[in-house]
């Protein structure tokens, strides 16, 4: 699946937050006043069909005309295989080709086998008189659930976008590089900074703050790592953003108890000092917790 050019896809600027647009658009259709006013102008011209539809995801629901194809006959009980009916057909054909046995010969064969059956209990130590105890019959196991019994749930919102992005990512060139970095100095510096903040303005610096800041500094040194891949008129395109917009993945719990991952971004992080970066980081997390993120917060993310 090829990625859609950004000039024709209205969701291209939202990156990993495309699912959020779909979710807010459904709320907008039910009640336009339920979304932030900043989204109203966007939704007036937005059409869900403009985005690349999810066409090949493993969790897609089957076509209505294909549901009947998934119906399978009841599973056979224990001791019978699914191929038993098929194997019985050749046996019937073979029997049809053989000449029929006269009835007297068949009647004579049966009495010859009965004494052997009566002698079997005596050989195994069972009493010869009375009725022979028959071994209990094995109880058949319950038939396993078939594919037609499985519950199917059409993906919407975040799961649908995740499936689409995972499918699309298969067409994007990918490389992985791993480095081991000593962090003793990082730990010591964090202790010094937090002791200073405790005596002065308050607050706390986490390892995520420091790692995010190190990522911004590294991108300033190696700007090619901030580039992205796209397609223009079906041709592979390398995109160099004007700024480093660092996306922060924030795990949020929805009112119904389910969880969602928001990825707002700190804009133009390369122009900030560490103090500015720290305050912008805390501000965007606080507004996410308070459900006060606006449309621009989700647009233009270059790296996460």
Please write out the topology.
Blueprint: H1 18-30, H2 37-45, H3 84-97, H4 103-123, H5 157-169, H6 184-199, H7 207-221, E1 228-232, E2 235-239, E3 246-247, E4 250-253, E5 259-262, E6 265-266, H8 274-289
Antiparallel strand pairs: 1-2, 3-6, 4-5
Helix pairs in contact: 1-5
Radius of gyration from the alpha-carbon trace, in angstroms: 35 Å
Number of distinct helices? 8
Low-confidence sequence ranges: 1-6, 51-111, 115-127
What is the strand arrangement across the widest sheet?
1-2
Shape: extended
> Beta-sheet strand percentage?
5-15%
What is the CATH domain class of one domain? Alpha Beta
Largest sheet report: 2 strands, antiparallel
- The N- and C-terminal alpha carbons lie at a distance of 23 Å
Instruction: Indicate the percent of residues in helices.
Output: 25-40%
CATH architecture of one domain: 2-Layer Sandwich
Order of helices and strands: HHHHHHHEEEEEEH
């Amino acid at each position: 699946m090829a990625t859609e050019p950004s000039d024709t896809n209205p969701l291209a600027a939202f990156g990993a937050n495309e699912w959020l647009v779909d979710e807010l658009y459904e709320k907008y259709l039910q009640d336009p006043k339920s979304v932030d006013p900043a989204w109203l102008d966007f939704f007036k011209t937005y059409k869900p069909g403009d985005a690349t539809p999810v066409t090949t995801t493993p969790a897609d629901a089957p076509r209505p005309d294909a549901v009947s194809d998934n119906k399978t006959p009841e599973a056979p009980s224990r001791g019978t295989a699914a191929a038993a009916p098929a194997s019985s057909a050749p046996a019937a054909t073979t029997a049809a080709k053989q000449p029929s046995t006269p009835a007297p010969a068949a009647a004579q064969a049966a009495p010859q086998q009965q004494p052997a059956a009566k002698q079997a209990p005596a050989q195994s130590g069972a009493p010869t008189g009375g009725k022979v105890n028959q071994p209990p019959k094995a109880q058949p196991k319950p038939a396993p659930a078939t594919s037609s019994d499985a519950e199917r749930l059409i993906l919407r919102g975040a799961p649908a976008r995740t499936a689409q992005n995972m499918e699309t990512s298969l067409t994007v060139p990918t490389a992985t590089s791993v480095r081991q970095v000593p962090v003793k100095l990082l730990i010591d510096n964090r202790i010094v900074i937090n002791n200073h903040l405790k005596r002065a303005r308050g607050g706390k610096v986490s390892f995520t703050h420091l790692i995010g800041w190190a990522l911004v500094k590294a991108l300033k040194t190696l700007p090619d790592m901030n580039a992205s891949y796209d397609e223009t008129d079906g041709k592979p395109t390398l995109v160099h953003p004007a700024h480093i917009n660092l996306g922060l993945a924030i795990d949020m719990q929805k009112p119904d108890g389910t969880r969602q991952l928001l990825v707002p971004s700190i804009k133009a992080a390369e122009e900030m000092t560490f103090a500015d970066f720290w305050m912008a980081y805390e501000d965007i997390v606080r507004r996410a917790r308070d459900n006060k993120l606006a449309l621009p917060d989700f647009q233009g993310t270059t790296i996460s």
